[in-house]
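re: ur question from earlier - yeah i can do the single chain one, its not a big deal. heres the input i used so u can compare w yours
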Amino acid sequence: MTEPGSVDLKKRHRAMWAMGDYPAIASEVIPGLGRHLVEVCRIGPGQRVLDVAAGSGNAAIPAAEAGADVVASDLTPELFEAGRRIAADRGVELQWQEADAEALPYADAEFDVVMSCVGVMFAPFHQAAADEVVRVVKPGGTIGLINWTPTGFIGQMFATMKPFAPPPPPGALPPPQWGDEEHVRSLFGDRVADLELRRENAVIDRFADGTEFRDFFKTYYGPTVAVYKANAGEPDRIEELDRALADLATRHDLGNGRMEWEYLLVTARRSA
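and the output i got, formated as tokens:
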């Protein structure tokens, strides 16, 4: 069985997220999601904040703008270059550090806030990642997460891609399970207090139609790029996947290219 910490798995996971251009997804498709998480977590001056699976800093940079001392950590440091440019343009400084969400290189109870915006959910071993989130936040400190739900658009996109994707490592769980309330409760258990789980929607108006969505994601979104790469020698399957993704986006179009992508907003405090 593959276990958390497998060097080969981490290399493959890092390579997947280095494909395409995730910073384009963060800045063009979900630009306000990280700032919303920062506001909900009430991040401000004097706090030490860790953003787990920070990518290019969609949440970490707004946290720094709020005056916090921020560490942006990610398994894929290739994403940091874009983040550093954005931070410099906004006139803020933060620390960027390569780190595995399932084995964070930080001391116990080091941070006032630990957050992740559609990031930690992609660590394949959910319990290991949840354990690390709890470990590095101070007792009474805040945990804040935004996770795509299984029933929402991104959860359905992963379900659509699943028949075309290589099998996951043994023991790995689907990322959108982090958007299921009971799953989150089971991951954290009695180690957190004041756990609040709220479903919300990100309004997406970046794509004129389903075809534009599909072409953007197959070019820029690492997991989608990887699935297409896995089927590169099979034109019939590529055509089928093309059609399935475009149809999915078309079905979710509320008019004029507007979509709503459901996510689970998770906030809690670490128990004393």
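DSSP finds eleven helices and seven strands in the chain. not sure if urs matches, ping me
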